[in-house]
Amino acid sequence: EEYAVGRMSINELAAVKRYMGTKDQQAEAELKSTDELDLPSLSAQYKLFEIDHCGSSKIFLVYNSIKPDIEPNIWLYNEDNNIKWYKLADNFTKYFRMMLVHLGLPFWQHCTAGLPLKTWIEQIYYLVGPHLLPNTIKYTDSVASNLWKDGPPNIIDPAIFRGRDNKQRNSRKK
Where on the tree of life does the source sit, at the highest rank (predicted)? Predict the structure, then answer.
């Protein structure tokens, strides 16, 4: 298994296709009670478009046919659990921002949904973005937190944005 760290992707518009599921899944969705109207299903009420995948899970842009005035939501569909649907974002813009915040780490959608991560992926999160893990230890006053509480602010030196022209001119003057 290889997963790229820092890879942020969404299917190309030409590659986005409507997901219908199998006939058995559709029949099962139609027979289920509609107690939970907010959860999408493979019934005709919802139009599902796969915009990405996350391991064996799929990420869908979900349109509700009955309520067309509602903006489409982003959902994670995980067949491995009893609870199959996890809402990731209220709209595509929020999903895109979440993707940027999670730095393209593998399985960031699972992390957001609160699903368990593999150990090696969790270690990458601890290394790159421990604040992104929902189950991290809450910091208390310790040596590490006291060191950074009154630490210097991050300051960017504007000299790094100057072009090479200045350096070349200085070398010619000498």
Answer: Eukaryota
